[in-house]
Structure formats: C-alpha cells, structure tokens
Amino acid sequence: MIRSTLLLLGASALVATVAACGDTAAPAKPQQAAAPRECPAIGDVPVKLAGGTFAMGEDDVYAEEGPVRETRVAGFWIDPHEVTNRQFAAFVKATGYVTVAEKPVDPKQFQGPADRIPPDMLKPGSAVFTPPDFPSNRYTDWWKYVPGASWKKPYGPRGADAAANEPVVHLAWDDMLAYARWAGGRLPTEAEWEYAASAGERSRNVQPAEANSWQGAFPNYNAESDGFKGIAPVGCYKPNANGLYDMVGNVWEVTSDYFRPGHDPDDRDNPKGPGAGQAYDPFSPDVPSRTVKGGSYLCAPNYCQRYRPASRQGRDPGLGTSNVGFRLVYDRAPTA
Ligand SMILES: [Ca+2]
Ligand SMILES: [Ca+2]
Questions:
Q1: What is the C-alpha separation between 67 and 189, in angstroms, rounded?
Q2: How does 72-88 read in b/e, with b if 16+ C-beta sit within 10 Å?
Q3: Partners of 89 in the beta sheet?
Q4: Considering its fold, how many domains does the chain have in total?
Q5: Among the listed residues 277, 248, 249, 262, the one whose alpha carbon sits nearest the alpha carbon of residue 314
Q6: Cβ count near 295 (within 10 Å)
Q7: Does residue 336 lie within any of the structural domains?
Q8: Does residue 237 belong to any structural domain of this protein?
C-alpha cells in the first residue's frame, strides 16, 4: 500500500511528497464540527433498486465527467446512508480490526532517503482538513497530516471523539474492503453509485438546503448556511427519490472503479471502470486511485462545484482523509 501520496480532497488530489509536506512539527488547528442540529434517526436497512438505464456523466462542467452516455445498471441493494462510526465500531468490536491510519508508516512508502522523512510522517495518522485564516488555492494550506488522527479521532488526538451517527472517515481502501467483507456487501461501482444518486434526475449542483456542502469562500470563510460547518450526522437532509440520504455532499464516497479522467463512451452495460493498468489520476500519478463521488462538506461554489451525482475524482487508496467515506451495495437481500 502506497502512502507517500496524499490527497484527494476538497477539490484537488495532489501529490504530497516528503518535500511538499515539509515540516509537520507545527501544531495543527483541527476543525471541529459545528454543534449538530436535531436530525431524525434513520434506519440502516438497505434500499432495493431495480435495474435500469440513465444518462451517466456530465458534459458541461468538469472535463473528467464526460461524455454523457446512456448506461445500463442491473438491480442491487444499497445502504440508505454513509457508513457511520457506530456501524464501523461494531465491525471493529467484532473483529479487532486495526485501520491503516492507526498503524506506523513504513518508510519505504516514501520516495527518497529515510533520514529526510519528517518523524511525524511516520507516526500513525491521517490527513485532516485544517482551514487557514487567509484566502488560498493551495491545498497544502488546508490539508495537514495529523499524527493520531484516525476514524476514532477524526480531528486528531486533541479533537472530539468520533460521533456515532456521523460518517466514518480516515479509512484506506483496504479498511473499506475489510468492513465490506464483514458486512456482506461490496463497494459500489461508479455507475451503480451514480444511478442511485441520480434517482431519475439529471445531475445538478444541489442547493444549501439539500445537502451538506460549503457556503462562502473556501477555504477560509464558511458561512454554514446549510447548518453545518463540518461533517453532519447522516440523515439531516431530505433523502433523494430513491430514499437515499447524503449521496451528494457530507463526505465523498469511494467506489470500486479505478479512476481516470473521462468515461469510456462504449462501456455502457454495467460498467466497472478501467483496469488497474489504465488507472490514471493526474494529481496522484504514481498510484492507482479509486473514484470518489458526490462531493463533500468542503465543496464550495468558488472552488469545487462537485456537489452533484456526476462529480468524480481520484482518491489515493492508501491514505484516509477527513472528508471521504463510503457506503455499501449488496447483490442479494441483506439479512438483518
Ligand atoms: Ca456545510
Ligand atoms: Ca455523501
């Protein structure tokens, strides 16, 4: 598992080499989630979706999302909400599983001499959104590798514990696979995810009342007019027409497809994305990134208009971040 590349993130996936990460000794200023408003309790029972066709992709926003083409997807079941800390904790309790972010980092995962690796980069940890107090478009101004950050401590060791009904974050690809095996599901293909998120409508940016995104000038001014500064508990916004919550916004969701910019126009029948050898992420060219969907609480009008079903980016499989989660799909009716 390669971990020397960081990050996808709010909007940019970029290579964070040892040099780019620089000195991590300065204390980070982890962002705390705003006090949650009242959100209705929703169940965990997966939703059955019949197969069908839909117009996958968008042609007129970001180049990586096209071309639009009619795509067929077979039926499946899908989680009604992002996998929560409560659900992931049950998996950890049952199995003793330790996530990648909770383990020391192998120096071999970095390019360059071991004695040039900042010691903090070898400690267990993860990438935490840490907003600057000045305008910026450099991802290194807001992504910090925080030792001690993990799914249990999403804002770092000095931050709050993971909230039970918030989506689990800071997981690597292998962590999600392990959870999926335990839960009897699998990561959705990009086509399955987008079909479920679109729910019969054309892809469009949602309004602040519809999903947890970012209002104001990212990264230094968050107007919070949608009610949440950071991650929201699942189910605080109205579900889509399929009965699915937070498909768009809150946290990006990992799919099983490898990422490369643009869709194969001829791959329309239950597409599963390119092979590992064809994976290409311009921001992390050295690793076979997976595709993430739907944007997050960090997507803002001035920076990342990706609070849409068709939005997509690559995501380093080896490193967790504080704005990426997942949900599962199932090929047969899940047992209670
Ligand atoms: Ca928000
Ligand atoms: Ca989401």
A1: 17
A2: ebeebbbbbbbbbbebb
A3: none
A4: 1
A5: 262
A6: 33
A7: no
A8: yes
The answer to whether residue 29 sits within a structural domain is no
CA separation for the pair 247, 227 (Å, rounded): 17
Residue range(s) defining the domain that contains residue 58: 5-23+34-330
Give the pLDDT confidence score for residue 37 in this predicted structure.
55
pTM: 0.89
- Residue 240 backbone phi and psi in degrees, to 5: -80, -175
- In-domain check, residue 193: yes
Q: How many helices (H) and strands (E) does the chain have?
A: 4, 11
- DSSP SS3 for 72: strand
Q: How many residues does the chain have?
A: 336
Q: How far apart are CA 211 and CA 185, in angstroms?
A: 25
Say how many Å lie between the CA of residue 205 and the centre of ligand 2: 13
Cα 318 to averaged position of ligand 1 atoms, centre (Å) = 27
For residue range 179-220, list pLDDT tens digits in order. Answer: 999 999 999 999 999 999 999 998 888 888 899 999 999 999
Residue 336: per-residue pLDDT: 62
Residue that is written with structure tokens 């907003």 in the block: 131
**What residues in the chain have per-residue pLDDT under 50?**
1-36
pLDDT digits (tens, 9 = 90+) for 123-142: 999 999 999 999 999 999 99
User: Ligand 1 centre and the CA of 228: distance in Å?
Assistant: 4
CATH value at residue 81: 3.90.1580.10
Q: How many CA atoms lie within 13 A of 321 on its CB side?
A: 31
Neighbours of ion ligand 1 (CB under 5 A): 212, 226, 228, 297
CB 254 within 8 A of CB 326: yes
Residue 38: per-residue pLDDT: 66
Ligand 1 geometric centre to CA of 212 (Å): 4
Amino acid at position 317, single letter: P
With CA atoms as reference, report the closest residue to 110 among 17, 226, 232: 17
